[in-house]
Amino acid sequence: MSFIIFIIVLAILVFVHELGHFLTAKKFEIKVTEFGIGFPPRLWTKQKGETLYSVNAVPFGGYVKIFGEDPDDLSLNGPESARSITSKPRIVQAAVLFGGVFFNFLFAWLLISAGYIIGLPTPADYVGPGMVTNPALVVTSVAPESPAFAGGLKAGDVILEASSEKYVLKELSPQLVSNFIEAHGKEGVVFQLGRGKEIMSSSNVIAQEGIVAGRFAIGISMEIIGTLKLPPHLAVWEGGKTAIGATAATALGLGSFIADAFKGQGDLSQVTGPVGIVGLVGDVTNLGFVYLLSFTAIISINLAIINLLPLPALDGGRLLFLLIEAIMQKSIPPRVTNALNGIGFALLILLMIVVTFNDVMKLF
Questions:
Q1: Contact 101, 56 (CB under 8 A)
Q2: Of all helices (H) and strands (E), which one includes residue 103?
């Protein structure tokens, strides 16, 4: 079920991204020859006007074929040459390339706004319109390979109680739980947890030194989180602010990771690929529909940011080529861009293989 939900989420996000390219191209009267979800072989096709719409067998991706992207297309010199993307000003070409990224951001905004209308998990110290209700102590992150991870705690779990061999803690806050772990973690702490609609207990979690400097800890972050429900007009406003904040945080996080990688300090274990995301989809689905909405919004933002990286085969790389052409005042030879895009695509596939292998190893 987690895999099926992952495929549906991925298909929706790819559709939204490619729809951005498609509608922007249509807006500027550029011919689009095909709009495909997934990669061939084709399962279903429908010709409507000048565009072939297709659903394909390999669900991990999608594409829009825009007239003029293939420099070897013999019809580029025909009567419709004025409708090719290469015949348009570079600012228009850039707009078409940026359209997919922009639609991913808009989709994230829509999902977060819908979450606020339904009731979105929000920190209790939130300052803004509306009121946070039903506050509870929630695990916001679990360090990989930590005692908490081994004990079965997951991000999103609500801590209902913490107990050691002799003591029980029912008055809960991040500081009180941290103090309880510090005092009793050496013999072990058992947590009563709320996960979605289930109530469960962790295994005995034994704290360790070195996770947090100067004290015993188990490798979790906690926060008092409740539910914020807003009317539609306020939900859209707060949704936009949240989407912008999440985009900035994602960009900064990715930038820090890339900087660490150049310094030789990058930790690939912190990167999650398709296999890991399937597991996360299962976790958030168990927590409830609104969590799945939020998770999908975060993935959409990540997809937008990654596509803006100035790497060949990504939208950001093609935007970089346009910038170089604008500075040089001449076009880059197609054989050069095709070769660079081919190399970039091969490197992305290699990175995906490495990340997927890393995801699989985490399962053992």
A1: no
A2: helix 90-118
Number of domains in the chain: 2
Tracing tokens 């739980």 back to the chain, one arrives at 177
Query: What tens digit of pLDDT does each residue of 97-109 get?
Result: 999 999 999 999 9
Burial-class residue 65 by CB neighbours within 10 Å (0-12, 13-18, 19+): middle
What pTM value is reported for the model?
0.84
Residues 170 and 93 in one domain: no
Indicate the residue type of 111: L
Contacts of 64 (CB under 8 A, 6+ apart): 18, 21, 22, 25, 32, 34, 35, 36
Return the minimum-mean-pLDDT range out of 193-197, 205-209, 257-261: 257-261
Boundary (domain end) residue, out of 167, 195, 227:
227
Three-class SS state of 269? helix
Rounded CA-CA distance 76/87 in Å is: 10
Which tens digits make up the pLDDT trace of 228-255? 999 999 999 999 999 999 999 989 988 8
Q: Which residues contact 80 (CB under 8 A, 6 or more apart)?
A: 31, 67
Examine the domain organization and report whether 90 and 150 are in the same domain: no
Strand partners, 32: 66
**Domain limits at 15?**
2-115+298-362
Beta strands, E only, the chain: 32-48, 51-66, 120-123, 132-142, 158-163, 168-169, 190-195, 198-201, 208-212, 215-217, 220-228
Residues 94 and 144 occupy one common structural domain: no
- Residues 96 and 172 occupy one common structural domain: no
| Other beta carbons within 10 Å of 79 | 7
Are 14 and 111 contained in the same domain?
yes
CB 203 within 8 A of CB 195: no
Give the number of other CB atoms < 10 A from CB of residue 61: 15
Backbone dihedral angles phi then psi of residue 130, each to the nearest 5 degrees: 85, 180
> Among 295, 314, 303, 236, which residue's Cα sits nearest to residue 102?
303
CA–CA separation, 156 vs 220, rounded Å? 11
Mean of all residue pLDDT scores within the chain = 87
